[in-house]
Amino acid sequence: MNKSDSSHAFTPELARSIYRKAYLINRTDQRFRAMLTNGELAVAYYPVRGQEVTAAAAMSALQPEDYLVTTYRGLHDSLAKGIPSRLLWAEFAGKRTGTCKGKGGPMHITYPPTGVMVTTGIVGSGIPIANGLAMAAQIRGENRVAVASFGDGASNIGAFHEALNMASVWKLPVVFLCQNNQYAEHTTLAAGTSVTSIAERAAGYGMPGVSCDGLDPEMMYQTMAAAVARARAGDGPTLVEAHTYRLQGHIFGADYSYIPKEELKAAEERASMMRLRQRISERQVTESDLAQIEQEVDAEIEDAVAFALKSDPPDPDEIRFDIYETEQAA
Amino acid sequence: MNKSDSSHAFTPELARSIYRKAYLINRTDQRFRAMLTNGELAVAYYPVRGQEVTAAAAMSALQPEDYLVTTYRGLHDSLAKGIPSRLLWAEFAGKRTGTCKGKGGPMHITYPPTGVMVTTGIVGSGIPIANGLAMAAQIRGENRVAVASFGDGASNIGAFHEALNMASVWKLPVVFLCQNNQYAEHTTLAAGTSVTSIAERAAGYGMPGVSCDGLDPEMMYQTMAAAVARARAGDGPTLVEAHTYRLQGHIFGADYSYIPKEELKAAEERASMMRLRQRISERQVTESDLAQIEQEVDAEIEDAVAFALKSDPPDPDEIRFDIYETEQAA
Amino acid sequence: MSGKTISFGQALNAALDDAMADDGNVMILGEDVADEQGGGVFKVSKGLSSKYGTSRVRSTPISEQAILGAAVGAAIIGMRPVAEIMLMNFITVAMDQLVNHAAKLRFMSGGQTNVPLVVRTTTGAGVGFGGQHSDMLEAWFAHVPGLKIATASNPADAYGLLRSAIDDEDPVILIENITHYGMTGPAPEAGYRVPLGKAAIAREGRDVTLVTYGRGVGDSLKAASLLADEGIAAEVIDLRTIAPWDEQAVFASVAKTKRAVIVHEAVRPFGAGAEISARIHEELFSDLLAPVQRVASYPSPVPFAKPLETAFLYSVDDIVRAAHATTDKAINS
Amino acid sequence: MSGKTISFGQALNAALDDAMADDGNVMILGEDVADEQGGGVFKVSKGLSSKYGTSRVRSTPISEQAILGAAVGAAIIGMRPVAEIMLMNFITVAMDQLVNHAAKLRFMSGGQTNVPLVVRTTTGAGVGFGGQHSDMLEAWFAHVPGLKIATASNPADAYGLLRSAIDDEDPVILIENITHYGMTGPAPEAGYRVPLGKAAIAREGRDVTLVTYGRGVGDSLKAASLLADEGIAAEVIDLRTIAPWDEQAVFASVAKTKRAVIVHEAVRPFGAGAEISARIHEELFSDLLAPVQRVASYPSPVPFAKPLETAFLYSVDDIVRAAHATTDKAINS
Ligand SMILES: Cc1ncc(C[n+]2csc(CCOP(=O)(O)OP(=O)(O)O)c2C)c(N)n1
Ligand SMILES: Cc1ncc(C[n+]2csc(CCOP(=O)(O)OP(=O)(O)O)c2C)c(N)n1
Ligand SMILES: [Mg+2]
Ligand SMILES: [Mg+2]
């Protein structure tokens, strides 16, 4: 179970697996946006294009039983943490076969079987909740680690601060993964944040803060694996800042002309699947391996889309259930 | 008006004035606790013994028109910022002649004529409010500075974090004065706070953080004066940490046996009026100066106590007023 | 009215613009409110930072406590900040500043300071935003002495209420409904005011009073049409201000109709409708021909999937049924 | 009952102790709750960290969002955290965790997770703590589907409600009244439970029903004695759980007495009493001999000076007068 503690070698298996996750994220996001564009679905969606490698590599440093708390912009994290495509697609489409019976929707994915415990739409609120998961593991003497995934903008909210301080004082087995994609809605990092690197804030909590290139799969994986190992060993939390990029508007359909053209272009290049493919293929992963992965993933997505589309929406009466343990009278 | 900008010399006048404030705080606190002990008053009171010099010296770096936001443990700040003794005593005693007509009480002192704008009982909440005062001054192009005074424990709450980040991004003319008295209620600094010095947190907001001996009048004054000058010059906020000490329980009457005897004893020595008197007398302030100050202050306090005791409490009907601009129907 | 047509969003924008032009103390702060950040997620402050500068129109970090705290601090020294909290659920991270400070500083200071602050926020179910972006929390604020809370049902009122809220010497929370921004209606004259605390009669009638606000007004007017087809003349009262609400207007109407239905989007238990119902019964008990009915959303979190979200929201039919209940009861009693 | 006497504070302490002994998943977190920090400001957790260790009884930083967030996270994986928020007003800095998360995670996850969390908090006017330490905010939580909220009026109920809250699979907020800790009463047997959602009849009577909870129970019992002297037999209902409240018990009593008064310490407008009043009118309109009356505190912030604080709080006389109002009205109608 503790493989990641002993070595964080970037093996060909790992490279393959990361490629699989990143490609799955990329194609899922693309397919989903296509369906929104052509009106097959109408859902508020926070695109993850540009952040595929970050999630794929970071989540690969976790065991399936490790916990994750993520955000509205969480499709990449959810897939990378192993939620089956069918269940996720069905939830995004508001169907009864979705992870949450269609009650939560894309902003509120939960799937305990693969450790995805909470997805929050309130900026920063998941960070203290991840502490609670880690605290429970600590009390129970379990060997689990909790990860809170959040954005650069979230590092300006009170919950971030309170949670990092508490985690440090209690040496909780938690990793704070800040996916710094340079924007908080339409606000640049500089316009809202008083540091140029979020990792600098770790010093204010007496914990290590590490920045890494979140678009480099090996660096992302190894940085995360080290933080996870540290947490698992009982040495406390780490603030990991992954430099990544949001290649779309904040929400699907939103204008993003405020992003300078050259900046966007450079990021598109750095975050591209082509570039990832190139890097992965340098890791004893053959062209035919990659082609096979792509074929499998494409098929998985088509199957999931078909599953979601043909599934039924929840029955209106379902509203009475899951408010409390006992259902509510009609 | 901008005297403090050009030089922060610790002149004899300043030494005298700081001594006066510190002595006034010390004797007011003592007198107030005596009246609580003998039952002349029954009020929730957060003693300030030990923090006299900190407030006296820090507030001396401000102009009367500069703004202050302080806390429930704010008697020292209020007096040092110039609230007349009579009005403060009357408010503490719940009389209609008090600063706030007896409606606020000791935890909620406001007195705009000397710049005391808000006193809050919610830990950390005053810090964002101080930003607002500074923001107004900035918008209006006024030369005023706002100070938020708060405790070490308050540096663990979300409002602290949000406020420091915002102040830094906007370069607000505000000074964050953390009176680190080593305890938050019964919790030691180490038990609740992930850094050993609160000033270390400033780096997370891209602002200067300075620690000083808050029991050394000159150091406290000069540290504060430099921060105030910086704010006034438009260079933005500073986090000032004053090392001070709470020589009493958290609230009057509360047990404080958890404080190690030697620690308390050493602090009593460092924070004593005797020691201050000694230091001040090295600054061309004569024994007779000091004796005269003491006499004046003693008389001022007796006058204020008499004023408070003989003043009437508010009329019950007064409850209808000051809820909204127009009074409420009975 | 000016004879022109204006959208709800434009009316709010015009109100801010006119207020800023009239008074240099008016300022705006909130996430993405300046033009460099798009002029607000719902474009309500579009153009204003370009016109009045980014010192008076400030895009903030994601820091609701700092936003409201800064607004409170500025307000007590005479600025008139209009703080935008993007969605009403986000106020939950910053209730302290409104409830413990904005609402109480006038009182706790013995009248030395006051807090002429406006908080604009939006919310509402029906657009698929799910559990954490759709709640109607007006009842919380109405329960806090020192706060005022209002909501508009049409563009002219949006303009007039926002102007009055900015004028007001006390803290006012204005709720916008997320489904309303595109709604159009007659444009008010510049400077138009809708007084806080005064209800409007949106439709006259003598058989039953529908008391409502915000989105409920449009739905109640639809219900009133359906009822009219059956020969029931419903009077629709648009409260506009939820606290302090216009008891006299409501009592006068119900004294006439002797039947009342309260309609709001918030969930029923412990919602604002409870107070209105209780007060009507207290004052007009012997006049009433039937107990006051309440129409509200189903008491669950706001669900995501469409059929559930529809099951959550009250419907126009629910209003009609509730009106029937008051008239049936009257017949039976 | 065991025949022994116990204080309210001791009863809470015993409930925590027994729950921790029974179930290793029960844990406590809050400011100063461990013995090294005094065992809680009101000593409710005294001795427990010494007995169960500081891993299960954790003193926290001053970080209410982190406290409640950690409790939520631990609860969804089966711990049974009891979080102490020292005073109810401090919940205002952390409403988000309760309202957007604790209350909704069961629903939003489609039942995959649930939040067996207890929040203990204290509040109440009358002890001179002033504007920011005394508010009764139960109506807010009662308005949030997914939350439960309860309050005890005596030591045995305090024990029994806290045990039931810890057992419960959903989030429960328990309000303690700051004036109650020293109150003594019969000690319950270990393991005693007071079911959530069930009211108690604190005194039987047939002329008027006084519906109340928490501090209001003692005051209503006093009022009932005074009324008895006049020959009016008041029935006192202690709701114990405010949401979901025991409608059936209240309706049964009012169906009998045909008159009702609701008593609570929170300010009247939009308070919990409004819902209870509205529901009674809705269900028993034609049985009622008079409109339901409400007794509550004056709608201002809680003042500091004694005469004002007294003017703020309702009095036993107010309850008697309200009961008279229901009986007078009955005579007139
Ligand atoms: C408390 C709160 N305030 C505001 C919002 C609105 N909002 C949603 S996403 C977002 C930007 C978050 O930026 P960041 O943390 O960088 O994450 P990203 O969207 O870039 O992944 C904002 C302001 C919110 N959901 N919650
Ligand atoms: C939000 C909030 N949480 C908890 C409290 C209770 N409380 C009052 S004072 C205090 C300790 C504050 O410590 P510190 O900031 O160091 O200030 P000090 O009292 O030492 O001056 C606490 C926990 C509060 N008033 N507000
Ligand atoms: Mg971002
Ligand atoms: Mg302290």
Account of the protein in words:
The complex is a heterotetramer, with 2 copies of chain A (330 residues) and 2 copies of chain C (333 residues). Chain A is an alpha/beta fold and 330 residues long. Chain A has a single domain, classed as Rossmann fold. Chain A has helices spanning 3-6, 12-37, 52-59, 75-80, 85-92, 126-140, 158-170, 189-192, 217-232, 261-270, 273-281, 287-310, and strands at 67-71, 116-120, 146-151, 174-180, 183-184, 187-188, 209-213, 238-243. In chain A, the strands form 2 sheets. Chain A has a 6-stranded parallel sheet with strand order 2-1-3-4-8-7, with helices on both faces. In chain A, β5 (183-184) and β6 (187-188) form a beta hairpin. Chain A is globular and about 50 Å long. Chain C is an alpha/beta fold. Chain C has 2 domains: 5-186, Thiamin diphosphate (ThDP)-binding fold, Pyr/PP domains (Rossmann fold), CATH 3.40.50.970; 200-326, Rossmann fold (3-Layer(aba) Sandwich), CATH 3.40.50. Chain C has 12 helices and 14 strands. Chain C has helices at 8-22, 48-52, 64-76, 95-102, 105-108, 138-142, 155-167, 215-229, 247-257, 272-284, 306-312, 316-332, and strands at residues 5-7, 26-30, 57-59, 80-87, 118-123, 148-151, 172-177, 184-186, 200-203, 208-212, 234-238, 241-243, 260-267, 293-297. In chain C, the strands form 3 sheets. A 7-stranded mixed sheet of chain C has the order 3-2-4-5-7-6-12, with helices on both faces. In chain C, strands 9-11-10-13-14 form a 5-stranded mixed sheet, with helices on both faces. In chain C, strands 1-8 form a two-stranded antiparallel ribbon. In chain C, β13 (260-267), α10 (272-284) and β14 (293-297) form a beta-alpha-beta unit. In chain C, α8 crosses α12 and α9 packs across α10 (272-284). Chain C is globular. Classes of the chains: A alpha/beta (330), C alpha/beta (333). Chain B binds chain C through residues 67, 69, 98-104, 108, 110-112, 117-118, 120-122, 125, 127-136, 138-139, 146, 158-159, 162-163, 165-166, 169-170, 321-325, and chain C through 27, 55-56, 58, 60-61, 63-66, 68-79, 81, 93, 96-97, 100-101, 105-114, 145-146, 148, 168-170. One thiamine diphosphate sits between chains B (73, 121-123, 150-154, 181, 183-185, 246) and D (31, 62, 64, 86, 90, 93). Chains A, B: InterPro entries: DH_E1 (IPR001017), PDH_E1_Alpha_Subunit (IPR050642), THDP-binding (IPR029061). Chains A, B: Keywords: Oxidoreductase, Pyruvate, Thiamine pyrophosphate. Chains A, B: One of its GO terms (biological process) is pyruvate decarboxylation to acetyl-CoA.
